[in-house]
Every structure is written in C-alpha cells, then in structure tokens.
Design brief:
The strands form six sheets. A four-stranded antiparallel sheet has the order 1-2-3-4. The chain is built from 14 helices and 14 strands. By secondary structure, it is α+β, with helices and mostly antiparallel strands.
C-alpha cells in the first residue's frame, strides 16, 4: 500500500516548473509523459483524463514553442506559460538534442499506449507523430557524418561544440536519430557514440562495468535512456554481456562505494546510498564516487529498482519510516545529507519522475515493451548494431 501511494503521488508532479519563472524542463516532461502512461495502467488516473492532459501538452509543444526555429528540436528549458526558450547557459539558448530525445521517448511511449480507435486518441497519435517526424536529427550532425551535436542555437550555431558520445545518459538520442523516418542520421554518423574511452571497461570496489566513465558515473546514466530502452533485450560488440548486466553492475558498484569506500562522516548505509546529479546544500552537483559531497538523492536507488530491487527497497523504507521531514506531498524530496544535516524541500522532474517509470518497468516491463515494439525503434536499434542477447 505504501508503494502505491508513493508512486501515485509521484505521477502528479510533472512537469518540473518554477512557478515564479514558468520554467519547465523538456527532458522531465518526457519522463512525466511516460509516468502518466504508468498511472493509467495502474488506474490512478483515468484514461480519458490522461488523454486530455497529453493533448493539451502536445498542442502546446507544437504551437507555442520555438521548435520551428530549432529544426524541430526543443530547448533544455522553456517557459511553461509562453513556450519561449529559457537559456540554460552561455551559448545554450537553443536546441538541446538530448532533452529532445527524452521528450520523444515519452511521446512515442504514449503514442504506442493510447491505441484505441476513437477520435481523441487518434488525434493524440497524429500530433505525436507530427512532432516526431519534424525533428531534424540529421541537422545535428553539422554535415560532418561523424556523431551528433548536443546543442544548436540560432544565435551561436554549433558554437558549444559538444558532441554526444557514450556511454552516458544519451543512448536513446542515437537510437531515435537512426530510427527517424524523415530525417535520419547514417550508420557512419552513429559510430561516434562508441568511439571514446567511455566504451571501455571500468573497475571499482570489485566490480567491472563493460562501458562506463570513471567509477561508472552518476546513476542517472543507467536510468534516463532506459525508461524506454529495455536493457534486457540489448547487447552490442562493446557490451557483450548485455545492458541489463551493465546497468546492474553500475548500481552495485555505486552502492559498494557508498558502503565500503566513502568517508565515514557521510554516514552512508544499507538504507542511505545513491549518488547522482541532484540538489546539494548550496547548489546542484553531478555526483559520483569521484565527485560526491555526502548527499544522497533517493532517485539513484529507487530508479534502480529493475537492477537491484532489494537494495532499492531498503532505501525506500528507511527514508519513509525514519525521515518524516524529508517526505513531502509527492514522496521523498530531491536529496539530503546526514553529514551536513541538510534536507532539501523541493522536487526535480528529472530525478523524481524517473522513479515511477523505472518502478513500472521493474513491476511489469510496460514502458520497455511499448517502446521496444515500435517499428521505428526496432529499426534504429538494428541500424545501431544493438541486438538481442543470444539465448
């Protein structure tokens, strides 16, 4: 019963928005769309109410945003009242292709789920298909045929110069770019994803992860693209044991660092572990073993439910039973630190909404099944060289 209440409430917080500025996050909105699908499946919201919400959102995304000036893509942040782009940083005042991919992942999951032959659901599917088809993934190769660029803006072009290489949270961007029926990239362009040191084995606390950055990095690297991508059904020439093993080992390595190697003053324990990007005292930080300050974000463990369910549940019950001031209307807040006696009182969509999505995948595999059975996604995975594990 407690889990049902937690997850039911989590599905209500999307999208992440600063009420004063209207700031909304595109990636978090994509996760929220997937969470709504899970909520309908669990009968926490009605199918009709979900379709109404998603239609409103889809029309807003189509008609109010700057996507036509961004080659069909979306920014990292936008104003949830006007649709106008909000700058995320210097030169990052235009399209963010990874955030766009997270949005498309959620939209395509919804298009697959809402498949009834009635007027409203057909309308929703048509709107989502239009948004999907109008993303010009090829544009983001900058005509180089060697990888995707993360950012582009009308003012600065590709001036940020950041290309998307793995292994990181952005795998679904390449799958979708290869899958696009209208503006695909080539297989040659996609090879860049595998070209850097992050697709080499990394070691820590007795574990080896087949593809990772140092100490495997933030836990969100094994969450965001895998809201739709089913790691149980994926292997390639670099991750031969499969992405489920890769992601599970990532979670085990991260947990082992917290319990065995982190400074004792951080007070990590069986019920208090999990390193990822989150709020920290005085700011925000990309946290991993090599860059952590003793702050735990519940999403790190809870969104790892498909990988380490028993260990994730220990974190959930510890927080729920012992830290009542950290438990708000929508479940646990974003992060807290026992070392600093600091407890956040806010929610971040990219952290919070990964939880119900990944828990639903653990319980039923629903979002994985919806996404992986989309014909375009199957084609994108095949063109990328991702194949099912051998029996």
């Amino acid at each position: 019963m407690h889990m049902k209440i937690v997850l039911e409430n989590l599905t209500k917080i999307f999208p992440s928005r600063n009420k004063k500025s209207g700031q909304a996050t595109i990636g978090g909105t994509g996760f929220g769309i997937a969470a709504i699908v899970a909520a309908v499946e669990r009968e926490w919201v009605s199918r009709e109410a979900a379709v109404d919400r998603l239609l409103k959102m889809s029309y807003f995304l189509r008609d109010k945003t700057d996507r036509k000036n961004l080659h069909g893509a979306f920014p990292h942040w936008l104003d949830g009242r006007t649709g106008k782009t909000i700058s995320f940083g210097e030169k990052d005042d235009g399209a963010d292709l990874v955030e766009t991919a997270f949005l498309m992942q959620g939209l395509l999951i919804a298009r697959s789920y809402f498949n009834e032959e009635n007027e409203r659901e057909r309308e929703l599917r048509e709107l989502i298909t239009q948004l999907w088809h109008e993303v010009d993934w090829h544009w983001f190769t900058n005509s180089e045929n060697n990888g995707l660029y993360w950012h582009w803006s009308p003012a600065h072009g590709f001036g940020m110069g950041m290309k998307i290489s793995g292994f990181n949270e952005a795998m679904v961007a390449y799958v979708l770019a290869l899958a696009s029926p209208t503006h695909p990239i080539s297989r040659d362009a996609a090879r860049f994803w595998y070209s850097t040191d992050e697709y080499q084995p990394k070691h820590g606390n007795g574990y080896t992860v087949e593809a990772a950055n140092a100490y495997a990095g933030c836990m969100f690297l094994s969450h965001y693209s895998f809201i739709g991508l089913d790691p149980r059904r994926m292997s390639d020439s670099f991750v031969k044991r499969g992405y489920m093993v890769r992601n599970t080992t990532h979670a085990l390595m991260s947990r082992a660092y917290c319990l065995e190697s982190a400074p004792a003053e951080h007070q990590f324990s069986e019920g208090f572990w999990g390193l990822t990007a989150c709020d920290i005292k005085g700011g925000y930080r990309y946290q991993s073993a090599y860059n952590e300050v003793g702050t735990v974000a519940p999403t790190a463990a809870l969104a790892s439910m498909p990988y380490v369910p028993e260990y994730a549940m220990r974190v959930l019950w510890n927080i729920h039973d012992n830290y009542t001031k950290f438990w708000g209307k929508y479940g646990p807040y974003d992060a807290f630190s026992l070392k600093d006696n600091w407890f956040d009182n806010s929610y971040l969509a990219i952290d919070q909404l990964a939880i119900p999505c990944m828990v639903e995948n653990y319980r039923s595999g629903l979002l994985w099944s919806l996404f992986m059975n989309i014909p375009e996604v199957k084609q994108g995975l095949g063109r990328m060289g991702v194949t099912p594990l051998a029996p």
